[in-house]
């Protein structure tokens, strides 16, 4: 499909979504969990899950001609306050100089073992 990026995971087909959608100069990246790219398992450490989320998102953005440096909106979903405390420093490391808007919500994530899910909107406007 034109202007769509797919990760090739079964849930894309089952739920009918794309990893990312390019809409003009805006790139919307779907909520991404932090599975280890080699094993497919969720690390126990929420900070590492966040790093995995961001690496996966960055890879999708690069396919669209952008990167995390183009982020303008960051939405973060975590399972509890302790997880938020582990994830926040990772966000600070990555976005310290980029400064997108940010929303962090505590909620359930429908993937056993997932502690964090991150969604990014990026802009490649000149």
The helix content is 25-40%
Give the percentage of residues in beta strands.
Answer: 25-35%
Distance between the termini: 25 Å
Number of strands: 6
In terms of structural class, how would the helical and strand content be classed? alpha+beta
Helical run tally: 3
Order of helices and strands: EHEEHEHEE
Low-pLDDT residue intervals, each spanning 5 or more residues: none
Q: Mean pLDDT score, rounded?
A: 95
Biggest beta-sheet profile: 6 strands, mixed
Label the overall shape: globular
Radius of gyration: 14 Å
Q: Strands across the major sheet, in which order? A: 1-2-3-6-4-5
How would you describe what is shown here?
The protein is an alpha+beta fold. The protein is 31% helix and 29% strand. It is built from three helices and six strands, in the order βαββαβαββ. The chain has a six-stranded mixed beta sheet with strand order 1-2-3-6-4-5, with helices on one face. A hairpin with a 2-residue loop joins β2 (20-23) and β3 (26-33). It starts with a strand and ends with a strand. The mean pLDDT is 95.
Topology record:
Layout: E1 4-5, H1 10-15, E2 20-23, E3 26-33, H2 46-63, E4 71-78, H3 81-95, E5 101-106, E6 116-123
Parallel strand pairs: 4-5
Antiparallel strand pairs: 1-2, 2-3, 3-6, 4-6
Helix pairs in contact: 2-3
